[in-house]
Amino acid sequence: MEAEHVTATEAPEAAPAPRLAAQGLPGGLPGHLLALQRTAGNAAVRALIQRKIEPADLPAKKPTEVMADDTYLDNNMTRLEFYDAQAAVIHYKDGSKLSLGLVPEHIKAPIEGVDYRSTSHMRISPDTPGKLTFVPRAMEIVMKLPDTAPAGEILKFARDVTFKHDPASGRVVPTEVNSITAPRLCELLRESEAEFVRNFDAFAKGGEKVMKKLEVVVTLASILSAIPSPGAAAGGAAARAATASARAETTLLGFIRNLLKGGGGKGAQVAVEGVQLGGVEAGVQGSRLFVRYSHILNSGRVVGQGRMVQSALERAAMAAGKEAGAKTVEVGVTTIVNPTWQAYLESLGYVPELVQVGATHWTKVWIRVFTL
Questions:
Q1: Cα separations in angstroms, 79 against 15, 73, 210, 286
Q2: Which pLDDT score, from 0 to 100, does residue 224 have?
Q3: Strand 288-293 and strand 328-333: pairing?
Q4: Which of 22-36, 202-216, 266-280 is most confident?
Q5: pLDDT greater than 50 at residue 337
Q6: Structural domains of the chain, count
Q7: pTM
Q8: Out of 17, 124, 244, 342, which could bridge 27 as a Cys pair, Cβ 3.0 to 4.6 Å?
Q9: What is the distance between the alpha carbons of residues 150 and 81, in angstroms, rounded to a whole number?
Q10: DSSP state, 72?
Q11: Integer angstrom CA distances of residue 325 from 192, 254, 331
C-alpha cells in the first residue's frame, strides 16, 4: 500500500513512520526517503535502504564488488516478463522492478546498450575500479586476425562498461547489459527468446506462457497484446510494417544493383522509408559480395524504422549476391557513434574487424557474413 500524501495542515512528515514499519521499513525515515516512497513506492525505498554501495561510491568500486551487491541488476531476480524480444520487466525479491528495453528504441538511460544474444565476449583483466573492460565477440575477432598480428592486437577492440544507479528501480545497472555484465539475466533472455520464437503464432494471437528457468518465473507474451482490439490495431500495424519492409527491400536491391553497375559507388547515399544511409559502397570480390555504409539516420523518427531498414538492407544484399553468383555476402558498418546501435548490431552477429582500405590505411568495420 502506498503512503498517503501529507498536506501542510496535517501531521508532519514523520507521521507515516508506523505504516512504513508495518511494510518492513524502518520508522522515522528522512524526508528524501519519504518523497521517494510517494513517487516510486515502498519497493524503491527498500532497495535504497538495503543496498551496500551508494551511487556516489560506484566509480571507486571494483566491478566484482558492484556485481556482488544485493541490488545489482543481475541479483535476486524472482520474475521476468518477456515481450517480443523488444522489452522485458525484471522483478526482484525486495518488490522492486526494472523495465529493460531490448532494442534501441526502448532502451533508456542509464543503460546505453543491450546485447543478451552474444556469448563470446571476453573480459579484460584487471579488476579496475569504476569500469569493466571487455572485447565484444572476442572469439570471432581472434579467428579473423592474421597469423602475423601482434599478441595485443585484440585490445584495439576493447571498450569499457561503467556502473550507474537507476533511480526508477533502485537497482545498480551496467551501461551495457551483456553476457559479461549480467550473465544470469542474459541467459534468461536467450532462453525466453528461443521459447517465444517456438510459440510465436500463439503469442501473436494474444497468448501467454509461464515457465520457470534458473529459479525465476518467466512470463512470455506479445507486446502488442496491450493494444486494445489486437486483431484490428495490432494486425493492421503488423501489415503496414510488413509492407514498408518489402518496399524498403525492393528499393535497396535496385540501389545495390546500380552501385555494382557503376563500379561500387563509394560514398553514395540513399533514403528509404524515412531512413538515410550514407557512405554506401558495394562490390564483388571473387565469390564474395559486400555492401557497406558509414552511417544510418532515422530522419523520419518512426519508432523501429532504423531496425527495419537494416534488416531490409541485409535481405537486399543477399538477393543481389544470389544474382551475382556469390557464395557469401558481407554487410558492413564503418562508423558507429551510438552505443545503443553498436550493441544492437553486435547482438545480431556483427563482428568488429580491421579492414584495409588503402595501401597503408586500415579502418574498423562491423561485419556480418551471410552464406548463400
A1: 34, 13, 10, 51
A2: 65
A3: parallel
A4: 266-280
A5: yes
A6: 3
A7: 0.81
A8: 17
A9: 45
A10: B
A11: 38, 17, 16
Position with higher pLDDT, 146 vs 126: 126
Q: Is residue 332 part of a domain?
A: yes
Which tens digit of pLDDT belongs to each residue from 76-132? 999 999 999 999 999 999 999 999 999 999 999 999 999 999 999 999 988 899 999
C-alpha 68: how far from chain center: 22
Regarding whether 323 and 349 lie in a shared domain, the answer is yes
- The number of CA neighbours under 13 Å toward the Cβ of 231 is 0
- Domain containing 200 equals 58-226
Say which CATH number the domain at 314 has.
Answer: 3.40.630
β-sheet with 122-124: strand ranges across: 122-124, 132-135, 159-161
- Within 10 angstroms of residue 102's Cβ, the number of other Cβ atoms is 23
* Domain contains 240: no
Q: How far is CA 321 from CA 272, 315, 326, 367, 372, in A?
A: 20, 10, 5, 16, 8
Q: Give percent of the chain above pLDDT 70.
A: 80
Residue 211 C-alpha cell reads as: 515457465
Instruction: Using alpha carbons, list the distances in angstroms from residue 201 to 105, 122, 205, 206.
Output: 24, 36, 7, 9
- Beta-strand ranges (E) seen in the chain are 77-83, 87-92, 97-101, 113-115, 122-124, 132-135, 159-161, 163-166, 171-174, 176-178, 208-213, 216-221, 268-272, 275-285, 288-293, 295-297, 328-333, 351-356, 362-371
Q: Would you report the helix, strand and coil content of the chain in percent, each value rounded to 5?
A: 35, 25, 35
Is beta strand 77-83 parallel, antiparallel or unpaired with respect to 216-221? parallel
Grid coordinates 503469442 are at which residue?
203
CB 172 within 8 A of CB 60: no
Q: Are residues 281 and 189 in the same domain?
A: no
Length of the chain: 372
Residues 252 and 325 in one domain: yes
235 located within any domain: no
Note whether residue 312 is domain-resident.
yes
Shared domain check, 142 and 94: yes
Q: What is the mean pLDDT of the chain?
A: 85
pLDDT of residue 230: 42
pLDDT of 23 strictly over 50: no
C-alpha distances in Å from residue 337, one per residue of 342, 351, 370? 8, 16, 24
Examine the pLDDT at 49 and tell me if it is beyond 90: no
162 and 255 fall within a common domain? no
On whether both 70 and 163 belong to a single domain, the answer is yes
